[in-house]
Amino acid sequence: MEIRYATISKTGRRHNNEDAYKVIDMPQNNRFMGIVCDGMGGHSFGETASETVCNTISDFWKKHISTPDCDSKVKLACKKTSCAIDQKAFELHHAEMGTTMVMVSIENDVATIAHIGDSRCYVQRPGEGLLYQTKDHIQLDFGWEIVAKCFFSYRPEVAVPDIRQIKLQTGDRVLLCSDGLYKSMAPDILQARMMDDKPLEEILDVYDFLCEKQGDDNYTAILIEYF
């Protein structure tokens, strides 16, 4: 198993960056893990919520490196992460805070994808196009988009992940991103650029340009190639 990856995370037109991300690359163990979290606007401490979730799940993965990836592993990580965000909220005088999460863990040639909220994962294959895209946990309320699932202080019942496993092939690419990235460009442009025959860093440079030009939010992405 070999993996290339590139990352980007920028404030955009906001005053501060409430996104968080982390990569754990363990080629000696045939494992790789990436995670992106997006602190929820309209609530305080969005950056604290995203960092707490990002770090807690990453630490769980590092501590359980010998445990095969599976649904129960993801759910246990999310359960412990809900407790961690509750503890952080308690330390901040019972602050209301929340974040979305999307992650991929690659073990040999199997990608385990999990998400809560509206941060997304895309998986594309050369010659076949889009294999998988996460479905946003969004509800409409009087015309407003409401995140129906997320990590939120004292709300463990809404921190329930969707989980999918995909067997990867050489050349497959996986994109994890916050909504600030995919909302800054048309879906066909995002997917076409994702499979450009260019270094991953150059593809993220294109996304960066489009987000700066057309976006109004923080934007974060991890672009991964399996070969």
Automatic annotation (TrEMBL):
A Pfam family recorded for this sequence: PP2C_2
Protein's organism: Segatella hominis
Descriptive protein name: Serine/threonine-protein phosphatase
Every PPM-type phosphatase domain range: 4-226
Taxonomic superkingdom: Bacteria
Classification via SUPFAM superfamilies: PP2C-like (SSF81606)
MF terms in GO: protein serine/threonine phosphatase activity
Entry-linked InterPro entries: PP2C, PPM-type-like_dom_sf, PPM-type_phosphatase-like_dom
